Records
---
Amino acid sequence: MRGFLDLPYRLPFARHYKTFDAGFYVDFPRQLKIMGDWLLESGCRRTLDLGAMTGGCIEYIRRRGVRMDGVLFTPDLKRLAAERLRGSGARLFVSPVWGPLRVSAPPYDGLVALGWLNLPFSRPRLRAYLASIRRALRPGGVFLFDFFEFRELVIPPTEAVALAPGLRVVAHAEREGRTLRRYHLWADGGRARGEVTELVDRSPAEARRELARAGFEVLRTSHLDLNYPREFWMARRR
């Protein structure tokens, strides 16, 4: 779908997502610890990671004694996560990044979605997706998520990343109002494919407004001054 990443969720690029998005993962262990603390303090026993990638978050949270299942955006990612999580008992579901959320499981105590709120959802689609997140939670369940305000970010206009021998991505970024648009060229040996992706600036006021409209109450907020400064919030399903 227009504006959404797709190729890094598919082989051969999916194995190298952490290299592609290295700036985010610099501080990932610190954010994971906060996430685990909040889930445990909220009494969560059964949780879901929306956008589980190759399963790193699931692996960590389950080590802390909380069951976590995962939603993967493509079958390729599901296969990679299944390899990593073999024997863990984690249930894995495939649901496209642009929604709607598809999980065939009883309601969860907690749901985690990192990087989700900045995706280029139209207002109706954002609200429909929040409604599906609410349905995936039991009454009183918690929703943990982060989001960025782009004026706080320093993003190189153009960068090239070698993912592996023969695999490379070149990206050029431009800001247009509330939208961060990136032009990606993915090279696999002698083949090259392009895609244009977008992220949308979301303010705390907008996040509170949409959560309240969807039937959530904000419980905790924290500004994480990490490599990518971001807001990390927890809301409860009313």
---
Amino acid sequence: MPEHEELSDMDDIDDAIAAVTLGMALIVAVFVAALFVLTMLTPTAATAGPDRAYILAGSKHLGTDHEFNEINPGLFLTWELDRFDVTVGAYHNSYGSGSLAASVAYPLVRGEDWSVDAFAGLATYFGTTNPNIVPMAGLQARYGPAFVQYVPVPGGQYMDGLVSFGLTFEVGD
């Protein structure tokens, strides 16, 4: 019987290695896709530095009794292109582990120091109750150095929506 248990342990290790390998491949795929968008749509944007940095501070989960981590430090870099923005970043997610995200935002209205955009993208959530790659879409607003995002979660298992917030500043010319 002990030999069978050892074989089972080896199978578990093989499964874990396969899951980690798949996870790393998916992370790389998300960022390669974001870089592809930058390179193919605006070749000069891929070589230029980002225009704006976002420092994620936290989140508020709406319509839930579930205990989420709502202190979510993270850093996102955004390239503001002619017709849309491309953002990539990393943050401490609401399940207590690290996540990577890439998104594209379409400006709805913009002023000199404010904006309201619709956005969509992908985020990684390995080792949580979510799928490994989670699609997201919603609205984001910026006024001066503050930003807020709203992501509705229709039919969500644990919540109805998510509000995240933090600070932002220009980093380009």
---
Amino acid sequence: MRKLNIYTFHRNIKPFRFDNHNTDCILKTLQKRYNVVWFNMDGCDNFYYQNDCNVNINQGSIIIFEFDDTKEFKTFDFGDAPTLTVALSKSKNFRGAAIGQYNRQLWDETIRDPLLRANIVPSVYPETCWNFGLINYESVQEYRSTAHLDSRLYWRGSIYKDPSKVEYNRRLAIEYTARQLGDNFYFGNYPIPFDQYIQEAIQFKLALCFGVGGGYACGDFCLRDIELYGLGIPTIRPTFAAETKNPLIPNVHYVAVDCEFDNTFRYKEPNQLGDKIAVKYQEVIGDTDFLTKIAFNAREWYINNITTPNITNIILNAVNL
């Protein structure tokens, strides 16, 4: 069998995380087809991938698949921004990628060779804990079926107000939404432990999800999007700029709020976006049938794209392995 080198960079990540289980499934699948050699590293190892390039792999959200005989390689990149794959794409041996935070414009501008460009494709963005929605869906839905759900719009997460940080200004619309909705908004404006977050989120009828501005320069998807799909909790958010292999359709899989981006895919006019979110919330919060359908569709998408073996097949098909 042909020798395939697989480089992963999450050795020190906790065992329950997506990264570890995903790699295990990928390895087991590819070992049936190739002579797999696994390089189990970590993003903190200061490893430089040396092919005909010299790229420092300084974070864990990437897998490199390299044929040993030709040194041709592809990546699965599920980082908030695919900066490592952008750097690796300069190599003459780079042959393509499956991208979690896939923004079409970024890759149209980065890859000019049409044959290579065709091999940079959207894949999937994961959840934090492997099969979390699959394991916990029934108990969450049993609770929600009898509980009196809070109709306030639920938000929990960072706002990114520090101008020195790259994420600055990407969630300021949330503050405007809070002002518009007043007592109809639950404003959890700082992170809490994951278990506590889930216990809190399941109390609400509708949850606000928010990336950090768009898949071009920083993540449009948030892990919270995927986790809430898995648990069957309807979500509202600005329309996705990033794409997935199997599309997430506005007002089918999530309640969509129209938004505009600047040329780096930061949200334009956060005050106006906040107003739009508030208006959309008022339109849908009383429509239980619509929100139930949204949650059902999102759950179906989660099953088809995020659970095993579907997610493994989507990734490997995207990189043609």
